Amino acid sequence: MEFVNRIIEGSYDDYHLRDLLRSSEDTATRLPQDEKIRHLQKVPILAECTKKQLKAVASISRVVEVPAGTTLTRQGESGEEFFVILDGAAMVEVSKRKKIRLGPTQFFGEMSLLDGGPRSATVRADTDMRLLVILRRNFQAILTEVPDLTRNILIVLSGRVRDLEQSLNA
After folding, report:
1. 80: domain range?
2. Is residue 26 part of a domain?
């Protein structure tokens, strides 16, 4: 019955995404480690990371392919994943009136890596997508091995907050 209710309310895709994330590495799309690192180097939040840090992040990331229309995050729900867009586009809905389109090298879900708190926006796949996904539990383990990574992420997030404050004051 829950399955039918999910289809009626339009959130069946949430189950699809969770199934993809739970699937074993054998069914996930393969991407060589060097190529993962190449993609991660282009991601602004990881731009200051060393090769060692990027290698550590690449080792815990998985490539997941999702069809257009898949709900990747839902505003207000807890978050456990960080997403980097490899191919395709996503629509971010912060409010009914504010929507932002994201494409390759852009990312979302970074706050969840640090605090696992509720999502600040709903994100849906606007097209078929290929994503690099990092689970929070795996990321927490990396932070103990590579503590400078936390500092790098906090610097980038601090910059985002400052930019947001400036735009609100303008």
Report:
1. 2-163
2. yes
Q: Residues 118-159: pLDDT tens digits?
A: 888 899 999 999 999 999 888 888 777 777 777 777 887 788
Is there a domain that residue 168 lies in?
no
> Has residue 48 been placed in a domain?
yes
Stated pTM of the model: 0.78
What is the CATH classification number for the domain harbouring 9?
A: 2.60.120.10
Residue 83 and residue 125 in contact, taking contact as beta carbons nearer than 8 Å: no
Q: Give the pair of three-digit tokens for residue 14.
A: 């949430």
Q: Phi-psi bin for 56: left (phi > 0), alpha (psi -120 to 50), beta?
A: alpha
Strand locations in the chain (E)? 61-66, 71-73, 81-87, 90-93, 99-102, 107-108, 122-125, 129-135
For the chain, the domain total comes to: 1
Distance CA 63, CA 134 (A): 9
The first and second tokens of residue 53, run together, are 């840090």
